[in-house]
Amino acid sequence: MKERTNILKNFRELVLRYLTAADSFAEGESDCYISAATSSYSVARQTLNTDADALVLKDDNGDDDLAGERGTTVSRSKMANHLSFLHVRLIILLSFLAGSHADRFTSDLLRRAVQFSRKDNVIVSPFSVREALAQVYVGVKGSAADELHSELHLTGHSKRESVEEFRRFHQILSPGGGATLKIANRIFVAHRFPVLLKYNELVRKIFRTDAENINFLNSQLAASRINKWVATRTEYLIEEIVQPDSLDGDLRLLVINAIYFHGKWEIPFHPKNTDKSDFFIPGEGPVKVDMMHGLINVLYGRTDVLDAHAVELPYMNSNISMLVILPNNPNGLPKLERNLYKVNLLTLTSEFEKEKILLDLPKFKIEFKLNLNQPLKGMGIQEIFRDPDFSDLTSPGECFFVSEVLQKAVIEVNEEGSTAAAATMAGISTKKRKPTFKVDHPFLFAIKDQQRVYFVGRVRRLD
Question: What residues does the Serpin domain cover (predicted)?
Answer without folding.
Answer: 107-462
